[in-house]
Amino acid sequence: MVKIALAGGTGQVAREVIDALLARNKHEPPTTEDGTAEVTFLTVDYNDTDSLAKALLGVHTVLSFIQVHSDPQNKSQKNLIDATIVAGATRFAPSEWAGSTLTDMSLHAGKAEIREYLEKVNEKGKVLEYTLFQPGLFLNYLAAPYQTAKYVAPLQTMFDYQGRRGIVIDEHDPIFTFTTVEDLAAIVANAIEYDGEWPVIGGISGNRVPISKIIEIGEKVRGGSFIIDHVNVDDLQIGKLKMSWMPAEGHRSFNQEQAAKIIEQAYIGILLSSTKGAWDVSNDFNQLFPDYEFTQIEAYLNDVWKGKP
Fold first, then answer.
1. What is the pTM of this model?
2. Residue closest to 6 by CA, chosen among 51, 48, 47, 44
3. pLDDT tens digit string along 268-299?
4. Which residue ranges make up each domain of the chain?
5. How does 125-137 read in b/e, with b if 16+ C-beta sit within 10 Å?
6. Most buried among 62, 174, 234, 280, by the most CB within 10 A?
């Protein structure tokens, strides 16, 4: 049994992970006499490394879910890393939870800086064990507008199953990795129980599918052809996204005024980076837990969309 701390622990993905950890009943905090699980919530000052370190005393593993785009100069996460080391914690996972390479993903630029920061921490010898949890995109998003996870809210992507719409990149058919958030949470729980050393690159590959297959599955489970928009890399590289539609809502971490610009920027980044392999994540944790059965994309989406208008 080890003590685990989650920074940004009230976020959607963090709460999925908390539930997966509590279901094991192997880590602090233990269950109470009446069988209910206790989670301690602390308000901390991420600008004060000393107080952060005090809050982390006795903690074995720190998982960060800090919103990178809301952390100017990555100060909060850098201070968290420093405090983790001062407190003597063994393991750390930065706020990744997406793709592998960060090229063309301006919204994820802070993740690259944190990766470099962690590399420098260990450049003269192992100081902190860490992994970059990378599950690709959440398969749950292809169920939008229906919520299939307990906490993670629906998020419409460029593969709109409800509207029977999709997008392809001319002369490219890049691979995307889709993993349910439930599978991610289960793998994180397995990783915390794992006695060996964490791999630095923590790929979690639920499903590897090219864009053409995503659309093919969509047309099959939705019972009809999709309207397809074609984009080309040259347009994407100069910041142009020629789509006949855009999602009505974005991620809840952005307000409505930011949403339209952020969504377009995100789509351009995702599509352009996909041609460079950013969303074809590795299977490092699949190899560590070969008996784990991941949710399969076609069966999952068939169940989600069966009988839906």
1. 0.93
2. 44
3. 999 999 999 999 999 999 999 999 999 999 99
4. 4-305
5. eeeeebbbbbbbb
6. 62
Query: Tokens standing for 60?
Result: 């074995």
- Read out DSSP for 118-158? HHHHTTTS---EE-EEE--EEGGGGGTTS--SSSPPP---S
CA distance 26 to 31: 9
Cis link prior to 145 (omega < 30° from 0)?
A: yes
Neighbours of 86 (CB within 10 A): 15
Nearest to 251 by CA among 8, 11, 20, 75: 11
Eight-class DSSP state of 30: P
pLDDT tens figures, 102-154: 989 888 899 999 999 999 999 999 999 999 999 999 999 999 999 999 999 99
User: The domain 4-305: what is its CATH number?
Assistant: 3.40.50.720
Q: What residues does 61 pair with on adjacent strands? A: 4, 91
